[in-house]
Amino acid sequence: MGNESAPEDIFYVWHLPVRITHWVNVVAFFTLAITGFYIGAPSIALHGSPMLQVRIVHMLAGYVLTCSVAVRVVWAFIGDHGASWQSFFPYLKKGGWEKIRQELRFYLFLRPQPPSSSAVVNVSHFFVLLAFLFEITTGFALLSLSGSHNVAGPLFGWLFLLVSPQYVRLAHVIVMWLLLAFTVEHIYVAALLDIRERSGLLSSIVTGYMGHERHS
Ligand code: HEM
Ligand code: HEM
Questions:
Q1: CATH code, domain with 123
Q2: Which ligand 2 atom sits nearest the alpha carbon of residue 131?
Q3: pLDDT digits (tens, 9 = 90+) for 154-165
Q4: 42: helix, coil or strand?
Q5: For residue 95, is it within any domain?
Q6: Which pLDDT belongs to residue 31?
Q7: 202 in a domain, yes or no?
Q8: pTM across the whole model
């Protein structure tokens, strides 16, 4: 948060449900990625490692991610305007494409001033949500293969009518890599905008407040 800003320049941008679901997602995601690497690397597991426990942790983190994503989806419909489902589709609003053009010019080093809007970032967040939903669907489908989860079978087993299990597993891993790539870009852009705008963007996802308003 910009300490030099006058109080009237300080805006409440992220309500509690958005901040809580963000950090629950982050912890669950890293737990899933680490345990997922482990599950996918039998060479590590062969050396007496606790594969069963790792799979259980993966599954539990999967349940946590599912609950958190569900809360965020509900909040998109009942919550504050800035976190609404409409913010995921800025190009549907008047002047949306122009905002996207200006922002891309900044990200491509064609424009020195940082954008006052966050349309591109909001679109990327929509894709993260889709990627989480994809991981949840494919994850529970994979879980149904173990036969011990009765709910997963009827709810997600249909996926194997369309695609064979090895492709579902491959897609599950590819989307993890896409999410990891997003994470690197995400932290870099948040830090870059924070420094260039002096807006306190990075701390905003902890405190909820930013130095000055960024329009969706
Ligand atoms: C962002 C979220 C997730 C990430 C990054 C992730 C990552 C991974 C990775 C890397 C693997 C190893 C696949 C391989 O190398 O063959 C895996 C396997 C698996 N994941 Fe996930 N996963 C996620 C979400 C979920 C969810 C929500 C569930 C549902 C409970 C789930 C259930 C499974 C199952 C059942 C397997 C197969 C385990 C096995 O065959 O022994 N995953 N996951
Ligand atoms: C661990 C380091 C992380 C930091 C410091 C961080 C920081 C931030 C900040 C500052 C924001 C609000 C500003 C903005 O719009 O960019 C934000 C939002 C967001 N971040 Fe992160 N983030 C981290 C990890 C992640 C990861 C691992 C993911 C997912 C793979 C993620 C997904 C999101 C999403 C989807 C939003 C939008 C919030 C919403 O609308 O629910 N972040 N993050």
A1: 1.20.950.20
A2: 30
A3: 899 899 999 999
A4: helix
A5: yes
A6: 98
A7: yes
A8: 0.91
